[in-house]
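Good day; I would like, with your permission, to put a structural problem before you. The record follows directly beneath this note:
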Amino acid sequence: MKKVSANVIQFRGTHYEYGYHQGMLVKDHILLKNRENQWKVRKPLFSIDKEETKQVFNEIAPAIWEELIGIGEALEWPMERVLLEFGGYRVKLNRSGCSILTGTDYLIRNYDYHPKTYDGFYSVYQPTDTGHAIIGVTQKVTGRCDGMNEKGLAMGYTFMHRKRPKDGFVCNMIGRLILETCANIEEAVSLLKRLPHRGSFSYVLKDKNQAEATIVEASPRNIEVRNGAACTNHFQIMKEENRHYLKDSKRRLEIMEKDQLTSPLNGDEAFQLLNGTENGVFSKLYGQWAGTIHTAAYFPQKLEAWLALGGDQQPVKFDFASWLNGDDFSASKVTGTIDTEIPFVHMEKADWFRTKK
């Protein structure tokens, strides 16, 4: 078992100021040192076009480009390197798992991935220039792997496959763009239809106005929209896009759907279903890029968020509504235990020369 923590980052200000703040946070952080070493082994299979990327950001969310400028100035890096690490455009991602369950007033998500990729930052940001305030778990610092905004729109995504990627935004930056620029499910669906997608993911959307969640199946080639209470790692409409091996994905989906169909779960029960290590949804496959690192919960109607690291945990609860009114969180860190020997990139030396189970 390994003790793991995530720092709670709270910030109010412009996007440039936020970017500069994040840059200073990671400037001498082991997270960046590890990633520097990882690039020596894992060469990027993509190119960085600064002007093209700038143009795309300026069309969708120009304030985030200002954030990237702030990060670059804090780190004293050229923009090409900032985009390589934090840009979220044209970046190759490895396989992962993830399970999402929704109810009338919640979205709960298991984030299943590899410890050597985890940021360890839980960020709450209220922009003073433009865009919605957001609470959620960061990925590649600027992106969000799940989260909720001040309008009561919650989002999480699940991985589908790595086949035939194209130029475009990756999942974590798409998550950030959704939360930053969209007030409800309708706006989020419209954005997802306009964005260029590099990879294939399902985006699960829940807002305070609709009892049922919307699931957007997205690939570089097509977008389909459906309703549903649960989502794992296979498309239900675009079946031609699916991987050949779907047994575990279908198994987890059946567990979650069965509980919701027989007796709908409340938020506490749904959280326990996903976070409990013996319930069949939580995964310990860390060496296979599919182990559950955190369980996050978002409650759009009351603007409350929960986070737990590892399994069988009691979540730390965050009153986002009060924070939006100026009351800072007292918690500066979320801690937990995870059943793996693999090092976490934000806490200890974690290169790619060797991987333990």
In short: The chain has a mean pLDDT of 92. The two ends are 12 Å apart (CA to CA). The first strand starts at residue 2 and ends at 13.
